[in-house]
Amino acid sequence: MKKIALVEDRTKRQELFMEATKIDLDAYSDVLDNIIEDDYRDFKDTILKDDSALDKYDIIISHKSAYEDNNSQVLAIIEKHCENSGKPLVYFSGGISANLYSHDGFDKLILNSKTFYSQNLKLFLDATKVDKENILMLSYGSNWKLNIVLNNLENVNLFLERYKLGQKDIDDFDKLKIQELEQIDFSFHSDELDTIDKIKRFRDALLNFIEEVNYE
Description:
Shape: elongated
Number of strands: 6
Structural class: alpha/beta
Strand content: 5-15%
Number of helices: 8
CATH topology of the largest domain: Rossmann fold
Strand order of the largest sheet: 2-1-3-4-6-5
Number of domains: 2
């Protein structure tokens, strides 16, 4: 069973979110270390000296500005640790307007605090208990695979329509969301989308996935 570190410096905010969502984080103590108040300060001081304190965790989740004057330094240590170990990393912040996912040596997700402290968190923790978790559940919920595909399909269709009207060039195609598809075991033909025909083939693969899901 995996172990998650959740680092939060704003304990009252967490309490308010948990009160609203009726999630009892203590019920997940087997998979979750909820690092708040004095524990969060000890955590910061410890990893500033030695990042081996992170070794016992399989997934690291942190408020993006939790570490006060040492924030940039601590975030750099955490990111380097995740890069070296291949561990998923999640940041949440009230200032985030859109969910951002990247897969460059390790999975990294940045999302808004309200999205993070939602029923998606319970779903993610429940899935972790049975080793079926994926950090994209925190963004998209139980239908995370289908929602990722639908977002990509919307992106493709909007681009193709604007391309047809002469408002977009091939280089304008937004490939940001495509990285999320790497978490789904399906051939989306998403490599080298540098021609209209390849982008249309990509669109058709997205539609095929949706059709398979609906058929099931």
